[in-house]
Every structure is written in structure tokens, then in C-alpha cells.
Amino acid sequence: MLAIRKGSATKGVAMYEIDEPKELPEGWALVEVWKASICGTDVHIYQWNEWAQKRMNPPVTIGHEFVGKVLKVNGGLGKVHEGDIVSAESHVVCHTCRECRRNMYHACENTKIIGVHMDGAFAEYIAIPEENLVKLPPSVPLEAGSVLEPFGNAVHTVQSADVRGKKVVVTGVGPIGVMAIPVAKALGATLVIATDLSPYRLQLASNVGADVTINVKEKDPVRVVNDLGGADVVLEMSGSQSALNQGLDMIVPGGEMCILGLPDNNVSLDIANNVVSKGITIHGITGRRLWETWDLGLALVSSGKVDLTKVITHQFDFKDYQKGFDAMMSGNSGKVVLNIK
Amino acid sequence: MLAIRKGSATKGVAMYEIDEPKELPEGWALVEVWKASICGTDVHIYQWNEWAQKRMNPPVTIGHEFVGKVLKVNGGLGKVHEGDIVSAESHVVCHTCRECRRNMYHACENTKIIGVHMDGAFAEYIAIPEENLVKLPPSVPLEAGSVLEPFGNAVHTVQSADVRGKKVVVTGVGPIGVMAIPVAKALGATLVIATDLSPYRLQLASNVGADVTINVKEKDPVRVVNDLGGADVVLEMSGSQSALNQGLDMIVPGGEMCILGLPDNNVSLDIANNVVSKGITIHGITGRRLWETWDLGLALVSSGKVDLTKVITHQFDFKDYQKGFDAMMSGNSGKVVLNIK
Amino acid sequence: MLAIRKGSATKGVAMYEIDEPKELPEGWALVEVWKASICGTDVHIYQWNEWAQKRMNPPVTIGHEFVGKVLKVNGGLGKVHEGDIVSAESHVVCHTCRECRRNMYHACENTKIIGVHMDGAFAEYIAIPEENLVKLPPSVPLEAGSVLEPFGNAVHTVQSADVRGKKVVVTGVGPIGVMAIPVAKALGATLVIATDLSPYRLQLASNVGADVTINVKEKDPVRVVNDLGGADVVLEMSGSQSALNQGLDMIVPGGEMCILGLPDNNVSLDIANNVVSKGITIHGITGRRLWETWDLGLALVSSGKVDLTKVITHQFDFKDYQKGFDAMMSGNSGKVVLNIK
Amino acid sequence: MLAIRKGSATKGVAMYEIDEPKELPEGWALVEVWKASICGTDVHIYQWNEWAQKRMNPPVTIGHEFVGKVLKVNGGLGKVHEGDIVSAESHVVCHTCRECRRNMYHACENTKIIGVHMDGAFAEYIAIPEENLVKLPPSVPLEAGSVLEPFGNAVHTVQSADVRGKKVVVTGVGPIGVMAIPVAKALGATLVIATDLSPYRLQLASNVGADVTINVKEKDPVRVVNDLGGADVVLEMSGSQSALNQGLDMIVPGGEMCILGLPDNNVSLDIANNVVSKGITIHGITGRRLWETWDLGLALVSSGKVDLTKVITHQFDFKDYQKGFDAMMSGNSGKVVLNIK
User: Fold this and answer.
1) Which chains sit next to D, with 3 or more Cβ pairs under 8 A?
2) Cβ contacts of A296 on chain C, cutoff 8 Å
3) At what angle do helices B175-186 and B199-207 cross, to 10 degrees?
4) How far apart are CA C87 and CA A336, in angstroms?
């Protein structure tokens, strides 16, 4: 079968002809991959940055956001069956660590990630633990199915705060930030403001429902937001130190900040004035809650309350994967999908 | 009457003979002060640091932690009556800002503080809004009554996290950190660890129930706590950058940090690894919740679950107030109480 | 001025010419009433049932749902000013009981109700504590402003459960049940089902967004809801014993029920199978949270997420109040508004 | 090996000599049982009441509360290993139903119970899914280990409410009600009141820390509790209709009731006055939260905050099991333990 792999410890990825998964361990399933979407993580692997070098041991088939059809299940829990259309949680958890015992699987201390620690989904077939599969209702468009995993990050971020009747600012509207916008509105936010440096991304934010967009190269976002009454909730998606500080500056006393963006380095924050004196709550967000986030995300998409096709800006044939990576690296894209079958 | 006042915009405070409060505005009460306790804020005012210079306009009678007897009420809500023994919330709130409307009075945007913005409690009599008074049950010792206000900070910090069955680390055991220890134990913490630089304070922490104390000059607190299984909850009471970082280092994935300590400057934090990837929640803590914190604190003290007399290490006659300030500034003290009547 | 009053302890109400409110106590405001809406409570007073007989001491001007303009404020908190367009919370709370101290003003033990315990809003002018007034943003239609108080009951009911991505059943779609439907959808419910006996009300439920309506005279609501996967959340608005039992029958394990409807008598429930074994949570709902419910409700209405004009089915001139009561008593109405100015 | 079994569909149980468990399915463990405790459910099985007749298909080895040593594990998650001292969760859950997916395993729709649906723990050896085992820290006394499962019911009940600084009433102090008392105190309750009909049980309640006991045959519990200021939280452990109504009568507005007791029939409740108008929250409690309840319970016991040996009133040799059942059926017992090895 064809597979996009990190073949060696150098920059880039390539398509290879490799064997289909042969042995299916007890509790695993074999899935025919139909569509897969490129994550920022895949770009890090492509670029072979420090994060990737620390975690990967090539050769590995990459990719972890996909939709496909179940071909076979070896035992398992009975969550999915042959013929089901499925997407997948990319984190394989241990079930025994302190966090798993507290149902905080998203913070599992022994997580393995599909397409990083084991062969992934940029391939015609993938072998994967059945418990990680999620059966899709027929009302979920296939394209949407291929981006449910990163959508889960957006849902997890929004669901961690109380956005009901609130003014919500999304700082950084890359693909996950963009997806957080319709989620916030669907869960009751009455004003959603997006900030970014990129006119392309801000336009995309408007397309999916942002009420106000602010290009931080042109305007002081703190002033604009304060003129609108301040932010009740800030969703930090950029990993930028200035966005973190601006977010804390614009947040009202008693407000909430959810941080999903990963800063490259330590960040310097005014804890005294912006966190303690304002009585702010900060939520660090990682992964998706198993399975509350998936259930909520699927309910929003299958009911039509969130239309994920609007965030998919590019689709390419599987063999044109390089165009997909180029689109991702240009910064001028939402989600980029590869059509495998 | 006698009163300790900030007489002018220079270092120090002094005792003056001044008039008793004459006019009692509608809704205010007159209280005979029996005992008052010296806060770190009073020390800042004494030292006339930047914080104090920004907020005060001398001459002002200082002090805001006290117990006394109600002499008169002009109208008011009927919370207290003549002859009641009372303590007081030091923050006078506006009732109309966004935070007050959401019952987040502790984050009121227009707070006035007794002994800072208006004449305070280091005096034989104080005039104060009746709504700020809290009637004490007879089972509360008078000394304890004089430290209920800072005790409320400790209670507010602990009640903001879930400490039931948890390992709790208190970083910084000045007076409020010390008071947080018995509160955490009373609310279900099964192991409480205290860290500080001062042997005196660590001994006090042991006296009030800390299971483990760590002098951070002698041992690496992160290593010691991790050897004990990590911290489920960190209560940051020191305002120190290193304590903040150590606290985040020792906290387990999914854990909570409550920050009451006010750093002097911006602090540099590893948000990516210690907040986002671990899925931590951080609570900024300011003031006391009106009146949930007072109700919980009073229940703990009046039932005997928390013995506040153990944290009062010094008592002086009112006229020996300088000895009280000296004790506070030595670092070798818990709470210091002035006996006024 | 003209006022609709309960003149004596017999059935009916009548319009009288009475003096305008003369003295305005400290902290009270005088409001010119523009529109007022008839509540089920007003109908109980009209019919002079047991509930009304126990609480009222005629003569009293009735009515407590209204919108109007502030003419004068005597002191007060500064929440509203002359010329402001306002609606009002109908419960005047004591601020000192245990519930008020815990910010549960809606459960105040000493509540007084406007139009029941003191002269109300079916009059050209009303005197009312300023703290009970709520200033309306210009984007709130005046008709909507006159029904914000009962809308608050609907908002309070929905906000007490987690409806995000959930299947929500509203049992009983009188005016408040009907208003709960768009609130549930605005806060993230993905399927809203309405049950009632009245085709008129079920049609109204459809008009405001119910996805499914069930006439319980024609179909077994438990079977229909179970075929749709069961109810995650039931909002009980009917006060009917059979609706309570059906609601508990259709709710999934771990689900939530919010009860606003007041049964006339004791009700017989299968606590063992439907509450304990299913691990259900039941929330009794009374009044509105001060002021979180008002803030959330106003945000939903002023942002356009909820259109309250759709639930107002009848408007009459003030003098035609009898037609208004007749419409209410017919059962074939949503909210009924009297135009006073 | 020896085992106490329900041999046929008639009253009583008997000891049999049967084969040791032979085959150990993948993921199961073999445990040598050291001590086991008799549950009310075992008494129902003994008496062969309707509940038992509906669920059991004799012959089955009964018993599900035990402590023992792991002899062998076939695969599994790695939670326990050979030689570990363990107790066990009695509910075997499906992991795929809606409730399991939401981490509400205690409400799993497909639960199987050890000693009811499969051979249980009143035997020298038991085969059991490894995921159901819980390794005990050395500081847990063996007797305590044998009652951790029912203790979990008590912990789950208390942890479902906020008891911090609260007045808590336990209605019905059979073994689980008794165990709830020290849990409530350990988690911050400042006054715990126990009600029952049995002087023996009320004495036991006092022994484990109840501040007040009320024999409802002698005094009106509603009056006594109201004289003490009313109940903030009621833990209903009796399954009695009168206790449910008294509990709702004595609860303060905004209070909470947790119901673990299973009434035999429908109960008649004053929903209007006691649930809706008071704004009460009611929690139905079933089983134990996996694994938060176990973690909290173990923390309380292993830290010494709760001493479970005080609730064990009788211990018998395994062969004297009839004496154990007699003690349970007398009503004059706390927990009754059988010493198997």
C-alpha cells in the first residue's frame, strides 16, 4: 500500500510502497483510510524540529487525523464493527496511571500518539486499537470526519470555560482557533472576537462566525476589546508571549483563560496584577476528554450546529501530498485534507 | 481616642489622640475595638513602599483586622445589633459593577479598603458600614476573632481547589500560609507539605499540622515532593518566582494551583510544559468570597476544627505597637495582635 | 393614575383611579410603566385561589412583569438613572438571611413580591427599590423587555443543567416552557423535544424551535423519547404528577431533571428505580439568580440569540385588561402583554 | 475449596466444597480471599426476596466485599501483580455504553455484579477481572480492606455534596450510614447528626463521631434539626418514606440531599414546597465512581483520617457464616466480617 512516512532523521517526508498491516493484535482494528488531514504536528515532523526529534524514531508512517471504514476487528469492546465509518482519537492511553484512574485520560502519563510513536493514518490502511475508534453518524460529512480530531482540541478548549452569554476572544486563528469560533457560538457565546496577524486567517474567522476580527499588526487588541467591555473568556491558541499577555490584560476580573497554544520558551507574565488581583482562572488544555469531548463535538457536527466543511480550505489527491504540506506551511490555509480513497 | 495613623507621606506610623468618629452615615455602625492584628499591608504602609504610596492619602488611621463590640447602628440591614461581638470584612464593595452583579464581590472594581482608603481599626473606635460586620458566635475566642480577616484569605485559597483526599503543598508559610494548613486538613487533605526559607516559620507550620516541612535552602522541594508522589494541589503564598516555578514543576497532570502571593515583578513561567501539557488549572485568589468564605471560616473556627490561637505568636498592649511592627518585620512571627481594650 | 387592583378578597380584579406613588423611600425609584405582561400568578390572584388567599392582603395593585422608564431615583446604588429604560426583578430580598449571605437570593427566606406583597406594575407608575431594576440595552425590543422576568425563570431552569450537545425534553410548554426552548438551543442543546396536551402550545413550541413535539394525549412520550435515545435533561414545567413520572422514566442514567412546575399536591415517585439506581440529579428551580440569570438572559436577548417577540401572542390596550386575562385563562396563548403607555 | 453458595432458588445459603477457579480468562486475576464482609445484598439473597429472585440464577457463590492476595494475573492492565494485597470493585462494567463513555461507570447500563451474576468472594479463591482489583497500601488494616466496597458507597454519597463547614444529617445509620459519618467529618462537615430507630445503631453512630443522635421513635427529628439551624445536607440511607419526607422538611433552602437508600415502593413527596420552592438539589447515588471514589476512600483510610475498624462489630470464622448472617439480620450490628484465611 502507499504511505507517507518519515523515512529517516532528516527534513521532509516521502511516499513509500509498504506492506499492509499484517497482524492485528487482540483488541485492534484494521481501517481503510478514506481521507486524512494534515496537522501542525505533521508539519513539525516534516520540518524535523526539536519537538519531533525528541519523540520519533523513523521510519514511521505519519498522520493521525482521518476518516475511514472498518475492515476488521480482532476482539475489542464492541464499539465499532466491520463496515462502520469511523474517525479516531490519536492518543492511546494506559488506563492505569493516576490520571487515567481519575478519568483524565487526556493527561495520561504514558500516552502513545498515532503517527508519532506508531504507524499512522497517511496510508491506505491503518491498524489501530479499537477503543480509539469513534463511529460516525451518517449526518457527518466525510470531510468533517477527517478533521474531528483537531476539532476535538477546539471543543475541549471551549468546553473548559463557561461561555454562556459571554464575550469570548480567540487569540490566534490557525485551524484550531478557527474551529473554536463556531463552537463558542453554538455553546452560547454572544460575542466572539478573533485576533491574528494574518488577513487570510482573520477572513476565515469571519467566514465561520467571528463577530469582530482584529489584526494585531494594525490595532491594539487590548484597547479594542476593552472598548467592547472586556473579555469574559480568552481562548489562547497562538503560543505567542504577546498574545498571552494581551489576553490577560483584556480579561475582566473573575474571567477565564484557556490556553491551548504551546509557547516555544518560558513566557514572562504579570501574575500579580493580571492573575491574582483579578481573580482569574487559567485552564491548561491538552488533547481531548475521552469521551466527553468526542460526544459533544459529534453532537454539534451531526446536528448541524457546527459546519466543519467551512474550515477545510484545501483538498488534494493523496499523491499530491507535497502540495498539502506547502499549503499548510504557507500560513494561508484552514484545514488541508488528503483524499486517499 | 488613641489611634495609630499614617500621619504623613513618610516612613513609619505613630499614635495620635484624635476625635472619636462623630457622624455615622446611614447604614454604618460604630464599633469599640478590642483587639486588632497587624497585616503585611500595615507593614507596607509603615515602610511606605510603592504599593502604599499609590493608594494612600495621609493622614489615615490604619489597621483592618479586628474584633470588637457594636455600640450603635444607624439603620442598616439588621445583620448586627448593639452589643454584638463582631469582626469585619475589610473590603467595602460597590454592589453595581459587573463583578458585584455576579456575586464576585471579592473582585469588585471599585473596592475601598478599611485602613487604607478610609480610617481603620487601630483605634479605640471605628465607624464602618454595617454590611461589612460579621457577628461572632460565642465559641470563637476573641484572639481568633481579631485574625478572621486574613484567615479568610487562607480559607478562600483552600476552598478554591478540591483538596479532598489530596496531597497539598503550601509554598510560603508566612501567617496566611500557616493558616492555610489546618484549613486544608479540615477540608480533607490527607498530606500537607510546607515549604519556606525560614526555620521559624517551618516550625510554626509543623505546630499547626503540616505533615512534612521542607527548607528550600537545604533541599530541592521538587525532588522531595515528587518522591512523595507529586502535589495534587499547590497553594502559592510566597510571591516568589522560584516558588511559582517549583510549584508548577511538582504538580501532577490535571492538578490545581491557587496563587495568593503577589510577585513584585513579572515572572517567567514554562507555560508549555507545566500548564498546557499537564492540563493544570490555576486560580488567582484575591480577598474573600462574600460571604461564603466568612461562613466557612466561622464554621471551622467555632466548631473547633481549626484552632486559630496557635497562629498568634505575639500579643502587645496597644501603646506598644512599635514592638508589634518590629515582630512582624523580623520575619519570626505568626500573627501579631494588639490589645486595645 | 389608573391601576388594576385586587380590590377585595373575592374573585376578579378591576381597574381603579388611584393616587400616584407619593413618597419614595431612600433607595427606591419611580418608574413610568410602558408595557406589562400577565403572569400565571396574576391569574391565580384573579381567581383568588388558595395560594393567593394565603399571601395577599387586598387592596393591592397587581402585576410584576413590565418595562418602563425611570422618572426619579431617591439615592440608591447607581444601577439606573433618570431616563433609563428598565425591567425589574419581582422579588425584593432581605440581604441578611442565610441564603442571601450565600448569594442564593432567589431562595431568600424573607422575600417580598411586587404585585403580591406590595403595589405592583399594572399601573401607570410604580415605586420600586432601585436595586430591583435592570437597565435594558437599546437592542432589546420593548415587548421583550416586558417579559424578561418570566423569561428569567426559563433561563434559570436551563442554566441549572448542562445542556451542551444534549437531548433536552421540556414537559409542559406554557409560556415559560416555551421560552425555555430557544434558551436550551442557544446554550448548545442539539435536540429539543416539547410535550403538552394542547395543540396550540405545541404549535407555539415548534414556532420557537422545538425539533420534536409530542401531544401526550395521542402518544406515549416515554416511548417516543426513548426511541430518540432518551432524555439527557428534562425541564419539568407542568406541575403534573404524570409529567414528573414520565420525565423520570425517559431520563438516561446520570441525567438531570430541573423542576420549575409546582404540583398542587404531593406526588408519588419511583425514587428507587428512577432516581437512585439511575444516579439522576434533580434541581428544584425557584425565581431567578441575582443577577447571573438576568445577565445571561439579557445577553441572549440583546445579541439576538433568543427572539422573545415570538412568544408574545397577544397585546391589548391597558383598559382591555379583561381580554388579556381571558386570553391567559383560555390556555391558548403565549405571553399576553398590556400596553399601558 | 470451600464456598458459601446460593445452591437453589429457595431461602438460605450453604457452604459447599467446590473446584477452585480453573481457567483464567485474558485480563482476569486469581485472588486468595482472606477476609470477606456480609452485605445487605447477601442478606437479600439469603432471604431470597424479589430483588434477588429477579437477578440470580443459582447455583452461584455469593459475596462481593473482600480483601485478599493476588495469586496470578493473566495479561491485564498492570494495575496489580502477584503478591499484592487487594480489595475489589464489585461492579464489572461494559466500557461502551453511553454512561461508560462519559466516565459514569457507576451507572453502566450493562453492569454485572460479583457474587450475583458471577461467582463471588465467599470462597477460598475468586477469579475476577484484573481491572476491578485495587491494590491496598500497607497502612490499610486488613479488616478495613474487607469493607472498602461498601465504604465506597458512603464515600460516594458524601463526595456528591458540598459538606465543607456544613450541618449534615444522616437519616438511617445502618452500616453504610455509619461509615458516612466519619467521611463527612473528614471532608469538613462541622456538625453531623444521625437519625435512626435503633438505639444500637445510634450508639455506633456516636462511637464513630456523630455530634448528635436522634431516635425518631422518641423525638421529632425535624424539630430537633430545625432547632439546630436546619440541615444543609441530608444523606438519606434508610429507604424509608418518612425519612425522605423528614429529610426534605429539615433541609434549608438551597440545600442538598443525597439519596442512597432504596425505598421498596413509590414514595409520596411534597415536591412543590420542599424541592421547587426551596431550590433544593437531589442526587441519586448508586455504586462508586471509578476510580475517584476508591482513590478518595483509600486516601482517607490509609492516612488514618477515617478508622474503619470501628464500624466492624463482629468477626466470625468462615465456617461460622450462619452466625454472621444472624448478626446481620438482628439489626444489632455494624459490618460483619468472615475470616476465611
Assistant:
1) A, B, C
2) 164-165
3) 30
4) 50
How far apart are the C-alpha atoms of C92 and C75, rounded to whole Å?
Answer: 17
Contact check, Cβ <8 Å, A101/D291: yes
D78 three-state secondary structure: coil
- Could you tell me which chain D residue has the CA closest to the CA of B160? D164
State the ipTM, two decimals: 0.97
Q: Where are the domains of chain D?
A: 2-146+307-339, 153-284
Report which of B303, B278, B290 is spatially closest to residue B183, judged by C-alpha positions. B303
| Contact yes or no for B250/B169 (Cβ under 8 A) | yes
Q: How far is C95 from chain B (nearest CA, A)?
A: 7
Note the pLDDT tens digit of each residue in A170-218. 999 999 999 999 999 999 999 999 999 999 999 999 999 999 999 999 9
Is the pTM above the cut of 0.95? yes
User: In the predicted model, is pLDDT for residue B120 greater than 90?
Assistant: yes
Contacts of A287 in chain B (CB under 8 A): 279
Phi, psi of A39 (to 5 degrees): -95, 160
Residues A264-321: tens digit of each pLDDT: 999 999 999 999 999 999 999 999 999 999 999 999 999 999 999 999 999 999 999 9
A259 CB burial (10 A radius; 0-12, 13-18, 19+) = buried
Of D22, B78, B271, D162, residue with least CA distance to C100: B78
* Nine-digit cell string for C264: 398542587
Residue B237 is placed in which grid cell?
A: 503564598
Contacts B298 to D, Cβ<8 Å: 165
pLDDT value of residue A92: 97
| Per-residue pLDDT at A22 | 87
Compute, in degrees rounded to 10, the torsion defined by CA atoms A34, A38, A43, A48.
-20
Q: Are A305 and C188 in contact (CB < 8 Å)?
A: yes
Taking an 8 Å cut-off on Cβ atoms, the answer to whether D239 and C269 are in contact is no
In chain B, residues 178-207 whose CB comes closer than 8 Å to chain D: 186-188, 190-191
CA angle B239, B243, B249 (to 5 degrees): 140
Which chain C residues are within 8 Å of A302, Cβ to Cβ?
190
Q: What's the angle, vertex CA B12, arms to CA B11 and CA B13, rounded to 5? A: 140
Beta carbons within 10 angstroms of residue B16's beta carbon:
14
Could you tell me the pLDDT band of residue D299, with boundaries at 50, 70 and 90?
very high
Which CATH class name applies to D153-284? alpha beta
| Terminal-to-terminal C-alpha distance of chain C | 12
Please state the separation of Cα B181 from the chain's center in Å. Answer: 13
Question: Cα angle vertex B136, ends B130, B142, to 5°?
Answer: 115
Model confidence at A76, pLDDT cuts 50, 70, 90, reads confident
Helices (H), B25-70: 40-47, 50-55
- Which residues in chain B have their CB less than 8 angstroms from residue D188's CB? 186-188, 300, 305
Asked whether residue D286 carries a pLDDT value surpassing 90, the answer given is: yes
Contacts of A among chains (3+ CB pairs under 8 A): B, C, D
A331 inside 8 A of chain C by CB: no
User: Would residue C44 show up in a list of annotated catalytic residues for this protein?
Assistant: yes
Amino acid letter, residue A275: V
Give C50's contacts (C-beta < 8 A, 6+ positions apart).
none
Alpha carbon of B107: minimum distance to chain C alpha carbons (Å): 15
Class of domain B2-146+307-339: alpha beta
| Domain pair C2-146+307-339 / C153-284, same fold | no
Q: According to the model, what pLDDT value does residue D71 have?
A: 98
Interchain CB contacts (distance < 8 Å): B and D: 42
